[in-house]
């Protein structure tokens, strides 16, 4: 069957133009001013609507311990919100083979509604791990993730980071880094608790911008020494971004990501009563509002390459509530896979902070290029997968937990009115959302065997 999306305003990272799009066997096969439908064609009417490449969310924690979204509910939420591919993290056990861990995650991901890949988290460095890392690329996993915080469970030290980045870089694997100085943060936390400072407000004050910037600068310097590409996840503040800017100027293969929560929310949410504030505990923490403009400008200028959700669906009851007497016991992380596309469209394009082309670049094209998916994903072009989102800019909606597919018992953006409503979502030509109704089938998503890193 042939599908034609008629008369939409097609947006790519380069152009915005009116066109019809022809889809055959899940792939875009023609883009032209007028494609005449014939009997038996499936026609989607997109007059006065935008047609975007599907969002690619490269920072998700589906099926993590303590979270309530697995690959089925999480990718349903993603698809409902315009995300057609994700790259999820794996969660390794110490001593386990990295490749065995990957196979476990490939099993967990099978119920997905949309296509998925993995970044392998590496939380130890020894001969076995260093031997296994290059094999990941053979398996289509061309990125790893390292943590500079969360001691004992995830954190690696500087020498380990150097060795892993170097080994990864030589194999065409880009290293994601969670950059916060975990050692000093742990000390600040115990100082705060010993003074009786136990509320979520102190989550922010014990993880200051200074210590995000310090770790960011260190990660970038180590990547430079290793001559390896590095991707700093969830950049939250001006000081950290400054480090990225300086490294880029030195020629480091450095890229930065930010998340909607840092663009839209701020640290005042952490000063609310526990029932509210605990929901907003993520790391790095929400920052002073002044950072928002810096981050938006970073996206507009290209200093920040991507936006991603960092979706961690920690429920309030049985999750966030565990830290009622001690903020350090609140599981870190924010749900956001369902609203990222809408929030960036509304606060970015609708409110005039970024262009339509930039919107496509940061939500789709740049993630696809950095993580080895382009041009199969990340654009609307002949031969590309028909992963498409039709959005009606004339309509608006109010974000609420009562209408979401995410499994959390709250939504961080409750009551926020966003301009732009998604009317259709196609994944490889299949309608997952049709006139706003969800039609997808679980298990149709495919593993994304990604290409090795190439500098962009
Ligand atoms: O607070 C966060 N971001 N939790 C998820 C894990 C991580 O650090 O990315
Ligand atoms: Zn992180
Ligand atoms: Zn994360
Ligand atoms: Zn408005």
**Under CATH, the topology of the largest domain is which?**
TIM Barrel
CATH H-level superfamily title of the largest domain: Metal-dependent hydrolases
Rg, rounded, reads: 21 Å
User: What is the beta-strand fraction?
Assistant: 15-25%
Question: Which ligands accompany this protein?
Answer: N-(aminocarbonyl)-beta-alanine, zinc ion
Distance between the termini: 36 Å
CATH class of the largest domain: Alpha Beta
For the largest beta-sheet, the strand count, sense and barrel status come to: 9 strands, mixed
Shape call: globular
* Number of structural units classed as domains: 2
The average pLDDT is 98
Tally of helical segments: 13
The low-pLDDT segments are none
Question: Which percent bin holds the helix content?
Answer: 25-40%
Q: Could you give the order of the helices and strands?
A: EEEEEEHEHEHEHEHHHEHEHHHEHHEEEE
CATH architecture of the largest domain: Alpha-Beta Barrel
Describe the structure using short key phrases.
Dihydropyrimidinase, EC 3.5.2.2, eight-stranded parallel sheet, binds zinc ion, nine-stranded mixed sheet, 13 helices, alpha/beta, Urease, subunit C, domain 1, 22% strand, hydrolase, binds N-(aminocarbonyl)-beta-alanine, 456 residues, TIM Barrel, Metal-dep_hydrolase_composite, 2 domains, metal-binding
Could you describe the 3D structure shown?
The structure is a single chain. The chain contains 13 helices and 17 strands. With 456 residues, the protein is an alpha/beta fold. It folds into two domains: 102 residues, Roll (Urease, subunit C, domain 1), CATH 2.30.40; 317 residues, Alpha-Beta Barrel (TIM Barrel), CATH 3.20.20.140. Helices cover 31% and strands 22% of the residues. The longest helix is centred in the middle third of the chain and has 18 residues. Strands 1, 2, 3, 4, 5, 14, 15, 16 and 17 form a nine-stranded mixed β-sheet that branches. An eight-stranded parallel β-sheet has the order 6-7-8-9-10-11-12-13. The structure holds N-(aminocarbonyl)-beta-alanine and zinc ion (ZN) (3 copies).
